[in-house]
Amino acid sequence: MTEIRQADRALICDCDGVLIDSEAIAAKVIVQELETRWPGLDIAPVVMPLLGLRTERVLHGAASALGMTLTPGDIDAIRMTVGTSAIKAPMVAGIDAALAQIPLTKACASNSDRGYVEAVLERTGLVKYFGSRLFCADTVDAPKPAPDVYLAAARAVGVNPEACLVIEDSVAGVTAATAAGMTVYGFIGGGHAGDEQVDTLRRLGAQHVFDDMKLLPELVSRWLHRMTVA
After folding, report:
1. Domain residues of the chain, as ranges?
2. Can you list the alpha helix ranges (DSSP code H) found in the chain?
3. Paired residues of 110 in beta bridges
4. Model pTM?
5. Residues with Cβ < 8 Å from 143, sequence gap 6 or more?
6. CATH class of 6-21+90-229
7. S-S: 144 plus which of 55, 86, 172, 191, CB 3.0-4.6 Å?
């Protein structure tokens, strides 16, 4: 195999749950909103596995699983409440220092809308690592679990998919990045993550699963070494 130069590789990060610790907040809001509408139902176990999908798909999926319905007005209202809450979330612990140590082109591929991603990265200061290399669900034909945002990111930064390392926290995200032909590492250190995610993310294609962003620079270094000697 021809050696791949470091300049021909990229690190692509999901936003919610990887850069911004917002998934726990989004989950709490969704569960509370649905409990208000459907009192007496056990909603959290249905919602949690759906995180990482677009909010409207989480809502439709939960409604279908529980045999309930939501009006378009309900969905719009819940989406707005989720967005208003999630945009205030802190960055994931350790991510700033980790990204500063990784000498690769970096991009963000998110299932959220671009306006939200721009706002949270600007507020937290993480935008300095990504610049305009933001690829979001509202700018591609199909959101995760389709591979579109990841393929768009690879094309834009001029890196082949197989030379991209993706950091993801969700079923939808790992599925999308794997379908794009990229190496995927699963992150379970966010406030929403549980131990059961380890087996799930590995089964879907995550080659490594970790829970502390302090480990990321070394994990990237090992991946780069494997790419060089393969």
Report:
1. 6-21+90-229, 23-86
2. 23-37, 44-47, 55-66, 72-86, 95-100, 114-124, 127-130, 148-157, 171-179, 196-204, 216-229
3. 136
4. 0.86
5. 53, 54, 57, 111, 137, 149, 172
6. alpha beta
7. 172
